[in-house]
Amino acid sequence: MIYFAMILCMTLMGAVASIFLKRASGSDGFLQLLLNRNLYIGGFLYLAAAAINIVVLRYLDYSVVLPLSSVTYIWTMVLSYRILQETITKKKILGVVCIVLGAACVAV
User: Fold this and answer.
1) HEC states along the chain?
2) What Cα–Cα distance (Å) separates residue 33 from each residue in 19, 24, 27, 38?
3) CB-based contact 83:25 (threshold 8 Å)
4) Distance between CA atoms of 97 and 25, rounded to whole angstroms?
5) Could you tell me the pTM of the whole model?
6) What is the pLDDT at residue 99?
7) How far apart are CA 89 and CA 94, in angstroms?
8) Residue range 42-56, pLDDT digits in tens
9) Which of 53, 6, 45 is nearest to 22 (CA)?
10) Contact 8/66 with Cβ under 8 angstroms?
């Protein structure tokens, strides 16, 4: 059970990392990008999520972990709506539902 909680944490960290990298992408020029703290926060979160992924893969099958990592798409959609004020369409919701259902079919 702890490993599934770790997967949820890993996926949330990956989605949050993407938010920081999206913010860093607004930098004007390469030097500004290198000076943007969002780049480093996002990179650190991705690195931490990868480390958790390695630990989880030690105990669970790859064929289970990888499909469950699609939960990242749910986090990403919610965070992009809440933080970036992006529009969520019915088409996006349907796409995420299809991905999650497919992942559930593979993981079970």
Assistant:
1) CHHHHHHHHHHHHHHHHHHHHHHHCCCCCHHHHHHCHHHHHHHHHHHHHHHHHHHHHHHCCHHHHHHHCCHHHHHHHHHHHHCCCCCCCHHHHHHHHHHHHHHHHHHC
2) 15, 6, 5, 9
3) no
4) 28
5) 0.89
6) 87
7) 9
8) 999 999 999 999 999
9) 45
10) no
